[in-house]
Write a structure and sequence with these properties.
The complex is a heterodimer.
Chain A (H helix, E strand, L loop, with lengths): L2 H11 L20 H38 L11 H24 L3 H31 L8 H32 L7 H28 L2
Helix pairs in contact in A: 2-5, 2-6, 3-4, 3-6, 4-5, 5-6
Chain B lengths: L14 H6 L4 H31 L6 H6 L11 H20 L1 H15 L8 H20 L31 H30 L12 H32 L11 E2 L2 E2 L8 H35 L6 H14 L15 H29 L8 H23 L2 H7 L3 H31 L5 H27 L19 H31 L63
Antiparallel strand pairs in B: 1-2
Classes of the chains: A mainly alpha, B mainly alpha.
Chain lengths: 217, 590
């Protein structure tokens, strides 16, 4: 069932009837899976609310960038290290791998899931490594955070994104460890879905940042 | 990972898990309450020092000298010290009192109970949220004790004063860095809290608790959480940029060609101080509603309870809360009429500001409608709710003047503004907290507070705050600028000194009366008469469980709600109130 659908349903009609036994929180998990259903719904709500906060953070940075660029005459567009394009491909590939993993799990392929998920997590770590390389190259070319407003915003946005990514990688890693220990019970599906959706969000966010850098930066 | 409401985990044993690093929303709520209580007395002490200095600018006080060796050398307060007291007073009050107690304190304690949940959706996140707030407070207080002392740039921290570093004054070095660090930490804590509040309301309501059956308190906590979520994310972004300007030499907010303390600033150029103002007030205006909305919720809840009548226009109240929350994000520019903005922008912000008057008036009329013809019980909690309505109207009316750009140009830097925002954001919100304290104390601690002491405290405080803040409007109209530490040498203000003396004495009096509140609070904590389950004959869920509630609130019984939150004096009902959990047959309402 679509989570966002159930939230809108809630807001309009009130929560669905809880199961007769248990099911704290107005149910939604349906029948036997009472408490876990509420946990799953709350987790998704929490995730979407977190994404809203992240979007506001980056929206604030973006508006600051647009204003700062528009108001001043000292904006010198900084050179973008070409490795950013490689990193973009790596990040997209990691999202793809996670999606393939989830598909494999839906059709019961646990071993396939483990392989794809581990691959996706590794690609996520690789992206962070690639970002470190990009910052290094910029440093070597004497493009520092205070060099120019263009580079200031580049560092601010990429580091803020990387901090989000660290959280994301930790979540992927947590799921991966559970999967490899074969302790991936149904309750962990929520963790899988949450971390995958968060990861796709960071993916989309990165594409947005890339457009921002190349068009405005 | 167990169920969200951690029905699987048992009541914790041992002092640390029970009272310090507790996952229980009730303990966390009390922790927030006492953090706020500590902060409000610090903030109040700072305001008394300011009021003392304003009327005795030349006074030499020996203990000033021992507290501040350089800033009050010889016992005489410097203007910079005055400004640092002002900055810390505003910051501590706004962030650690007004944002913390009504939302995180009472909200944490009563939101889950009022919607019939065992706990918040994410108890660990909840605990982290409190301890992050605590760290933020420690970092903020630390600013007093570093070299140069606390920052001078006000709670709004306008650059370049806040951004250019030590050169702009004592306190603008380490003190300002700690200040902005503390605010950034606080933003993180508030975001965690907001996520928890929203997920809890959306997903953990018990059976029958439709959104339109939630007490208005829950509505205000929900909308406040949404405001906090969107607002604090933006403040966090602004704060991080300010930290970078201060520490690594970026120029987000610092323009070129600045001359500060006879030195030309060469390492910054091109930044925009106005950018900070936009980002700050995009947070700052919703922050006003973060402070006041929970007070509105408590007031609505209490007026109905103590007038023994349903809230007049419940749905209108809900829509008013939602539209105040929405409009709150569109009016930040009215704090910046002085910034040289395009008059057409100012007009747009002004019209939107006036538009907030509509839902505010709806709320006020509905409060009066709720009282109309009611059998009013004048308990202390009710007195403070009535006081809230009074202060909200008084403070709101002066806002209509300030919302006009033409008038604001004159009023903006005067005491008129100080009077306005203290009435509506400061004291009204604090009255909401007092009301909440007297109403919920029996539930939180299982004992009743003393009504006689409570009433004396109410009347003295009510008269006291009007004596402090009403004259501020007059001295403001007379042109008395704010933020000045000393106006004795300004000829046209000399005639106003007696008024300032009056306000200072009123402040001493009002502050002294608060000791009575402390005595009442702590005396009742240990010696108050035992509280029954439902001392006020209220209808909401927290009054269906023992005082204080057991660890998991409903002792494993899942409440089922059959009634709206305000079914008082229903014709044909056996009592003049119907609990939300009473069987549906008591009335015709489904």
């Amino acid at each position: 069932m679509s989570m966002s659908g159930s939230i809108t349903h809630d807001i309009i009609h009130g929560p669905p009837r809880p199961p007769a036994e248990g099911g704290w929180g107005g149910g939604g998990g349906g029948g036997s899976d009472g408490g876990r259903g509420a946990f799953r719904r709350a987790s998704f709500t929490g995730l979407y609310v977190l994404l809203a906060a992240s979007i506001m953070l980056f929206a604030a940075f973006t508006s600051a960038m647009v204003v700062r660029r528009g108001l001043s005459d000292d904006w010198v567009s900084m050179p973008k290290p070409p490795i950013l394009l490689v990193n973009t491909a790596v990040l997209l590939a990691s999202s793809l791998a996670l999606e393939l993993a989830r598909r494999a799990l839906r059709s019961g392929g646990r071993a396939k899931f483990n392989a794809w998920w581990t691959g996706g997590t590794a690609l996520g770590v690789l992206f962070l490594g690639g970002q470190a390389l990009a910052w290094n190259q910029l440093n070597a070319a004497s493009v520092f955070i205070s060099t120019n407003p263009s580079s200031s915003f580049f560092y601010v946005l990429t580091v803020a994104h990387a901090v989000h990514l660290l959280g994301g990688v930790s979540a992927l890693f947590y799921v991966d460890v559970q999967a490899l220990r074969l302790s991936l019970g149904p309750a962990k599906r929520t963790a899988i879905d949450i971390s995958a959706i968060f990861w796709h969000f960071l993916d989309g966010l990165w594409l947005y940042l890339m457009v921002l850098f190349y068009v405005w930066g | 990972m167990s169920a969200p409401t951690h029905s699987a985990h048992h009541a914790p044993q041992g002092f640390i898990r029970k009272y310090v690093f507790s996952l229980d929303h009730k303990v966390i709520g009390i922790q927030y309450y006492f953090l706020g209580l500590f902060s409000v007395f610090i903030g109040m002490a700072l305001s008394l020092l300011m009021r003392f200095h304003m009327v005795n600018p030349e006074a030499k006080v020996s203990w000033f000298a021992s507290l501040w060796h350089t800033a009050a050398a010889g016992g005489m307060m410097t203007p910079e010290l005055y400004l640092s007291l002002m900055t810390m007073h505003g910051t501590i009050m706004v962030f650690f009192v007004l944002t913390t107690v009504p939302q995180s304190g009472f909200g944490n304690y009563f939101l889950p109970i009022q919607i019939g949940a065992e706990d918040m959706a994410f108890p660990v996140l909840n605990m982290m949220s409190f301890w992050t707030t605590f760290i933020a407070l420690v970092v903020m207080i630390a600013a007093f004790f570093v070299q140069g002392g606390a920052p001078l740039s006000g709670w709004t921290a306008y650059p370049p004063l806040s951004a250019a570093g030590r050169i702009t004054g004592p306190g603008e070095g380490m003190g300002q860095t700690l200040w902005i660090t503390s605010i950034a930490i606080f933003c993180g804590a508030s975001l965690m809290g907001a996520i928890n509040f929203i997920a809890t309301v959306v997903d953990l309501r018990c059976k029958g608790m439709r959104l339109m059956r939630m007490p208005l308190t829950c509505w205000t906590w929900l909308v406040t959480a949404i405001l906090g979520l969107l607002g604090f994310a933006v403040l966090l972004a602004a704060g991080l940029l300010l930290i970078l300007d201060r520490t690594v030499g970026t120029s987000f907010f610092i323009p070129g060609g600045l001359m500060i303390s006879d030195q030309i600033i060469t390492n910054h150029k091109g930044g925009s101080p106005l950018l900070w103002q936009h980002l700050f007030w995009f947070f700052g205006h919703p922050e006003v509603y973060i402070a006041i909305l929970p007070g509105m919720g408590v007031t609505s809840h209490l007026l109905a309870t103590f007038a023994r009548k349903p809230v007049f226009g419940y749905k209108a109240m809900v829509y008013a809360i939602l539209s105040i929350g929405f409009l709150g994000f569109l009016v930040w520019g009215h704090h910046m009429f002085m910034s040289g903005m395009n008059p057409y922008s100012a007009m747009a912000f002004s019209v939107l500001t006036m538009a907030i008057g509509v839902p505010s008036a709806i709320k006020t009329f509905n409060w009066i409608g709720t009282l109309w013809g009611g059998k009013i019980h004048f308990d202390t909690a009710m007195m403070f709710s009535l006081g809230f309505v009074s202060l909200f109207v008084t403070g709101g009316l002066s806002g209509i003047f300030l919302g006009q750009p033409a008038l604001d140009l004159y009023f903006h830097d005067t005491y008129f503004v100080v009077g306005h925002f203290h009435m509506i954001m400061g004291v009204a919100a604090i009255f909401g907290m007092f009301a909440g304290t007297f109403y919920w104390f029996p539930k939180m601690f299982g004992r009743m507070m003393n009504e006689t002491m409570g009433k004396i405290h109410f009347y003295a405080t009510f008269i006291g705050v009007y004596m402090i803040f009403t004259p501020m409007h007059f001295v403001g109209m007379a042109g008395n600028p704010r933020r000045y530490s000393d106006f004795t040498n300004i000829e046209y203000l000399a005639g106003l000194m007696p008024v300032h003396k009056f306000m200072t004495h009123a402040a001493y009096f009002t502050a002294a009366v608060q000791i009575l509140f402390l005595i009442n609070l702590f005396w009742s904590l240990w010696k108050g008469p035992k509280a029954p389950m439902n001392p006020w004959n209220s209808t909401s869920l927290e009054w269906t469980i023992p005082s204080p509630p057991p660890f998991d609130n409903f002792a494993g019984v899942h409440p089922v709600v059959n009634h709206g939150p305000y079914e008082f004096s229903v014709p044909g009902a056996p009592t003049d109130f119907i609990m939300q959990t009473d069987p549906p047959s008591v009335t015709s309402e489904g």
